[in-house]
Each structure stands twice: as structure tokens, then as C-alpha cells.
Write a structure and sequence with these properties.
This protein has a ten-stranded mixed β-sheet, sandwiched between helices. The chain is built from ten helices and 22 strands. About 20% of the residues lie in helices and about 20% in strands. The termini are far apart. The longest helix is centred in the middle third of the chain and has 23 residues, at about 260-280. α5 runs parallel beside α6. It is of the alpha+beta class and about 600 residues long. It is globular and about 70 Å long. It has helices at about 5-15, 45-55, 70-80, 100-105, 190-210, 260-280, 325-330, 355-360, 380, 455-470, and strands at about 20-25, 55-60, 110-115, 135-140, 155, 170, 220-225, 290-295, 330-335, 345, 395, 405-415, 415-420, 435-440, 490-495, 500-510, 515-520, 535-540, 545-555, 560-570, 575-580, 585-590.
């Protein structure tokens, strides 16, 4: 039975709104119509977002949780910023100490459902699955890498529907999916975006029937698509997003060339947003539902896509994986008919880690009942009452574009933006730099002029925030080694800890006590990543571990510079954690040869 505090909350929940968070993947700040600075001939069509802007409150100063997918979603779910969140790059997974927004809302009497990309753990885990984090129902793709397949055969699910096997459902149309089998415009196969849209809209129609029958239980829906992230057809290799119907779509006669895929994907997500609102109204739920729309990080520059083609970062500097504004500033639009004044624009500095506190206040949950969190509710802003700006907005990332072999932090204080990038976190240097780059966003939105020298007091304030807000996390930088090992011990076969799948063979040559050369060969079918071979060096650190730096190559001209760390720990053995521009997985040494 709930305690008195939560019993009161549950009693009030019938009057609380339904809450929906609709999330796009890798859609840039400037891709949203209301933020676009692209020339007219390259402005993407987003009529549903435009309508949402007209009907609700749009934000120009909103921030995703991080400049890349998984840590950004970690902040959204847990309400903790990237200096405190368990996930600092695209891995590893949430753990038992993480409390999610769905857990908070479920305890407050909400029905909870997540459809789409999770990317924060393992479906069978009692610590990191969507169900472990409070969702009554889940249907989608849990694995971060598998989400890159736009036409997956398997869907993770706990729905217990006909034909389900364990925690899997199967899309028959996608068995053996590839560009040939899926036919022209991929119409013989089933795009995950179409599947998730249909499933979520049916869920809403069923919810409308429950409501009409007298069930007043409010719901929280987290609807997370994978477009316009780069993707493949029956493969996780990342190319231009292969949404269906491109040859008959709105850009069929454009001069966009290869970029027609990205344009089509943005507009396809916009179409799904429009269908969601149509269904919400048809189900009779629209007046009782507050809807948030956003994207998980800055503009993508992957999958043979150039983020500058559509000016996807707008006037901002940087893109996905950058600690400058273009890496993590994001569109945010919120609607609630009759409650949020239509057509309003806000300059409030919202960050993803504010969502937990915001959802909790909407549900009637008091702040003292919440788990440890960094955010602040923006309900006063949404209700037109105004509120003070947060004292700062904080981000950090393991391998930023500014220095992919390093580590960095950024902090916004009012109109000041400080960006601090340096060597790997394993160097022990926090903050990452001696003096950050400092910009006045009020005068220099594009962050073109460093004014740190003229503003030492602001620099000192920013550096202190960076020092205070970072908590050690073994995944961002080198884990702490507890046992010695020789570099030659790395020679051999490795597997992924998250799935147990074979990952690679690693060959050590020219080894000394402090340094060795290494080559890596991916084990087919190479489910872990986009690369096939890699070469580089491994060097012992003063702490007793080893830093790895490699250059990886693969199909479709794939090239990436990666970094990681090898350590040996009591009870955990020898393992490698990657923290480069592509987060692959935590790998452990196998005693069995991989073939």
C-alpha cells in the first residue's frame, strides 16, 4: 500500500493531465521550421511542428541532455545531468540506483507506456529495461545499435500479443530485409517508424475507450522514433535515413541529391507528429494531454549526410557530439489546449533533466518525494507565470568533436557560454582545460569570439561549476584498475558484455612494458559496430591501466578515430571500455577463440 504522501498524490491523479514526450533522433536545432535559418529552397517541410508552435509554447533556448543519444536520454529519464547520470556516452546501461520518470509517475497513479527507441539497457535486465524503469508496457528496440536498422525483423516487447516469443515480436515483412527484398521505396518492408506510429495511435484509441468507460487513470507515453538518425535496411550500417516512399514524397523533384533521404526523414517524423495529434483528438484525449516535442541532440553529420546542407544547426556552432551550442541545443515545443497560451515563445533555458521535475509537478508529486535530481520544474513558465533562469546549464561528454580523443565540459550561465576541452578523463584533470573558451551568446550566438581574457570572473565561476558538477563515472575515461596486467594479455578474442556476442579478435605486436601496437578484426556478422578492421596503439597509464587509440575503417567509406581503456579489476577480469566518437560496448576477454 502506498504511504500517505503517495496516497494523496494518487487520489489527485485523476485530475492530472496525461503526459506525452515525443522525441525525434538526431534532428538538428535548425531543422524545425520555427528555428530554421536555411534559404527558402532548402527549408525543410515541418507543417505539424509549425502547427504545434501556433498552438502552444515554443522554446529557443532549450537543451538536450547531451550531444549524443544515450546520455541525453539518460538525463531525460532520470532528471540528472550528464555529470551525474550513469550513462556518459552511448553505454553502458542504467542500473538499480537510477530512478526514472516513469517510476515516479507510476507511483503517482499513472499508466505508463514506452514505444520506440530505448537505448539505455537490456530488455531482460531487472535494472536497465524499460519495465525496470517504470513502464507498464514497452514495444520497440532496446539496443542502441540495432535501432540503426530501419526495417528490423525483431521488436522487443512485453505486450504478450499473439505470436510473441518471450520478449520478442516479429515483423514478417522484414524477414531477410535488404534493399532488393524491400523493393522500390522499401515499400515491401515495414519501417519501424510506421510500426511505432500505428501501435502508439492504437494505444491512444484504446485509452480513449477506457476513458469513455469511466477509467480516469492518467497516462504517460514516451514515444521515441529513430529518424532522422542515419540508418540501414536490414543492417545497422549507417547511411542516409531510408524512410519509405522517397520517390513519391515531397522532395521527389528537388535538387537535393543524396540529401533527399535526410529531408524525407525529417518530414516523415513531422507527419507522424501530425498523426499523433489527429489520433489524440479522435480519442477524445486532446484537452487532457500535455505534449512535449523535442530531439535528443544536435544535428547529425553521419550516414553520408552533411549537416550544413539544410543549415541544420541554424546559427549555432557545432553539431552532434559538439560541446558548443549546436551539439546540444534542441527544438522544444509544448502544447496543452486551454492551459498553455497558444503561439507563445519562451526564452527559458530548459534542459532535458528538467523534465522529471516538470512531469512530477504536473502529476501532483511534491519535490521532497522525488529521487535525487538536478532539474527544476518549468510548469510556471508553461502556465505563463514566468520564473527565474536556472543558475547554470551543464553538459559534459567523453569524446567531443572538439577533441575526439579527449574529454570536455560546457556550462551556460545566463548569456555566458563556457566550453572546456582537454585530454582524456583518465588524465585526472578536472576541469578538462586550464582556461575555457568563453562566449557571450547575447552578442555572439555563433560562438565565434572567445572573450575569456576580458572576463576572468566569469571564467572562474564557470570553472568552479565544472569542478563541482562532475562526479566520477568509470565509463567516461579509464575505469580504476585494481590488478596489474601485461599488454600481451590483450592478445586474443573478445566478446561484448551486454549481449555475449562475439565482437573482435585483437592482435598485439611490438610489445614493451609500456607500449604496443595492436590490430582489431571484427567477427562477422559484426553486430557491434560499423567498422571491420582497426589499427593503433595501446599505452600503459600511471594508474596501472592502458589507453587505446585506433583508427577504424569499414564499408561505405566508414572511417572513425576511436579511443578506449583497458583495465583489470578484481572480480571483473580484464576488460576494454570504448569511449570514442562511436561507443561500441564494454568488452571482456574470451577464453574461446572466435571464428
Amino acid at each position: 500500500a502506498p504511504d500517505a504522501m503517495w496516497a494523496t498524490t494518487i487520489a489527485a491523479a485523476a485530475a492530472a493531465p496525461n503526459i506525452v514526450f515525443f522525441l525525434a533522433d538526431d534532428m538538428g536545432y535548425g531543422d524545425a521550421g520555427y528555428l530554421s535559418t536555411a534559404p527558402p529552397e532548402r527549408k525543410l517541410r515541418t507543417p505539424s511542428m509549425d502547427r504545434m508552435v501556433q498552438d502552444g509554447m515554443s522554446f529557443t533556448e532549450a537543451y538536450a541532455g547531451a550531444p549524443v543519444c544515450a546520455p541525453s536520454r539518460c538525463t531525460l529519464i532520470t532528471g540528472r545531468h550528464s555529470g551525474h547520470c550513469t550513462i556518459r556516452s552511448n553505454g553502458p546501461a542504467l542500473n538499480s540506483t537510477d530512478v526514472g520518470v516513469a517510476q515516479v509517475l507510476k507511483k503517482a497513479g499513472y499508466r505508463t507506456v514506452h514505444i520506440g527507441k530505448w537505448g539505455l539497457g537490456i530488455m531482460s535486465s531487472n535494472e536497465s529495461s524499460p519495465m525496470a524503469k517504470g513502464f507498464d508496457e514497452y514495444y520497440g528496440q532496446v539496443d542502441q545499435n540495432y535501432c540503426h536498422d530501419y526495417y528490423p525483423y525483431e521488436m522487443d516487447s512485453n505486450r504478450k500479443v499473439s505470436g510473441q516469443q518471450g520478449l520478442k515480436e516479429y515483423l514478417a515483412a522484414n524477414k531477410g530485409a535488404n534493399p532488393v527484398a524491400c523493393g522500390k521505396d522499401h515499400l515491401k518492408c515495414r519501417w519501424s517508424g510506421d510500426e511505432w506510429s500505428d501501435v502508439s495511435n492504437q494505444w491512444l484509441m484504446d485509452e480513449g475507450k477506457r476513458r469513455a468507460a469511466g477509467d480516469k487513470t492518467p497516462f504517460f507515453m514516451y514515444l521515441s522514433f529513430t529518424a532522422p538518425h542515419a540508418g540501414g535496411i536490414g543492417t545497422t550500417l549507417e547511411g542516409q535515413p531510408p524512410v519509405p516512399g522517397i520517390s513519391t514524397g515531397p522532395y521527389a523533384n528537388s535538387s537535393y541529391g543524396k540529401e533527399v533521404g535526410y529531408a524525407s526523414a525529417v518530414t516523415a517524423i513531422d507527419t507522424k507528429l501530425g498523426l499523433y495529434f489527429e489520433t489524440l483528438k479522435k480519442a477524445g484525449l486532446d484537452e487532457d494531454t500535455i505534449t512535449f516535442f523535442s530531439s535528443d541532440n544536435g544535428a547529425s553529420n553521419e550516414g553520408n549526410h552533411d549537416y550544413q546542407f539544410f543549415t541544420s544547426s541554424g546559427a549555432l556552432q557545432g553539431y552532434k557530439r559538439s560541446l558548443h551550442e549546436g551539439g546540444h541545443r534542441t527544438p522544444l515545443v509544448v502544447t496543452w489546449p486551454g492551459k498553455i497560451v497558444a503561439g507563445t515563445r519562451s526564452l527559458h533555458q530548459f534542459a532535458f533533466y528538467d523534465f522529471l521535475a516538470t512531469a512530477a509537478e504536473l502529476a501532483g508529486v511534491t519535490t521532497d518525494a522525488l529521487p535525487s535530481h538536478d532539474g527544476t520544474s518549468i510548469v510556471p513558465t508553461l502556465m505563463g507565470k514566468g520564473q527565474d533562469l536556472p543558475p547554470f546549464v551543464y553538459h559534459e561528454y567523453c569524446a567531443p568533436n572538439e577533441k575526439s580523443s579527449g574529454w570536455g565540459q560546457s556550462v551556460r550561465i545566463g548569456n555566458w557560454s563556457a566550453v572546456c576541452v582537454g585530454d582524456k578523463l583518465s588524465s585526472g584533470k578536472i576541469p578538462a582545460c586550464d582556461v575555457p573558451l568563453l562566449y557571450d551568446l547575447g552578442l555572439d550566438l555563433g560562438q565565434t569570439k572567445d572573450v575569456a581574457a576580458e572576463n576572468p570572473d566569469v571564467v572562474a565561476q564557470a570553472m568552479q561549476i565544472m569542478r563541482d558538477q562532475h562526479e566520477f563515472n568509470p565509463y567516461c575515461g579509464a575505469p580504476v584498475p585494481t590488478e596489474p596486467f601485461s599488454l600481451t594479455d590483450l592478445h586474443g578474442a573478445w566478446v561484448q558484455t551486454s549481449s555475449g556476442n562475439p565482437a573482435m579478435t585483437l592482435t598485439i605486436t611490438n610489445a614493451t612494458d609500456t607500449q604496443a601496437d595492436l590490430t582489431l578484426t571484427c567477427v562477422e556478422p559484426c553486430t557491434c559496430c560499423n567498422w571491420r578492421t582497426a589499427a593503433g596503439t595501446v599505452k600503459k597509464t600511471a594508474a596501472g591501466g592502458a589507453d587505446i587509440d585506433i583508427k577504424a575503417t569499414g564499408p561505405q567509406s566508414f572511417v572513425a578515430t576511436e579511443s578506449g581503456a583497458a583495465v583489470k579489476q578484481e572480480g571483473a577480469g580484464l576488460h576494454i571500455v570504448w569511449s570514442g566518437s562511436r561507443q561500441w560496448a564494454n568488452w571482456v576477454k574470451s577464453e574461446v577463440a572466435l571464428v
